[in-house]
Amino acid sequence: MNYTILIAEDDNDIVKLLKLYLESSGYRVLTVDNGLSAFELIKNEQIDLAVVDIMMPKMDGYELIKKTREVKNIPILILSAKNQDTDKILGLNLGADDYMTKPFSPLEIIARVKANLRRFYNLNNGDSIVYKNAEIVIGELILNTEKLTLTKNGAEIIITPNEYKILALLMKSPGRVYTKSQICEAMNGELYDNYENVITVHISHLREKIESDSRNPRYIKNIRGLGYKIEE
Fold this sequence. Notes:
Layout: E1 4-8, H1 12-24, E2 28-32, H2 35-44, E3 49-52, H3 61-71, E4 76-80, H4 85-94, E5 98-101, H5 106-121, E6 135-138, E7 141-144, E8 149-152, E9 155-157, H6 161-172, H7 180-188, H8 195-210, E10 220-223, E11 227-230
Parallel strand pairs: 1-2, 1-3, 3-4, 4-5
Antiparallel strand pairs: 6-7, 7-8, 8-9, 10-11
Helix pairs in contact: 1-5, 2-3, 6-7, 6-8, 7-8
């Protein structure tokens, strides 16, 4: 499949470099130099993955991610000079799927783009569990594993790709406890620095979306000292 990659970056040298490497890898590439134009493209074009800078004119990367998550469910990779853990956690909490800091290796960017596309669009390949109508139903929640959508009481809930992966892992085995490292590996294919805090953030964000009372969750339970499970 010829995926379309959006680059939202105001440094022209970086744009040229990324565009060269991505097109050489067979991707269709669209570029913009501000967050507002990026959001218009995401709304109106078929974008399969976005590479987003944080510091951009008209609309910064954080706001772009927030607004994107209101309308589309696509992988988002942040490429930023901001390298503090707090910056990474904020970006992931807002809905990004990956975070790379500048300066960067173009080959690593290509590898991360391929990995995120593979994880998101081929998530269910090889899955030995078959669900009727491709739906997993737990209580009021229905996770559609073909459309990659979540509904509660018939209303769609917008979740990020990483939130989908976590929820799919838990919902496929209700009652089973997963450690944070297992959740991270299922979500990302590997462990990374500060993964425990990142998983906590994702779980918190999911609870805010699916629970009637996130402080007293009905679905996602914390098993102290072990990890998380979802109740049937």
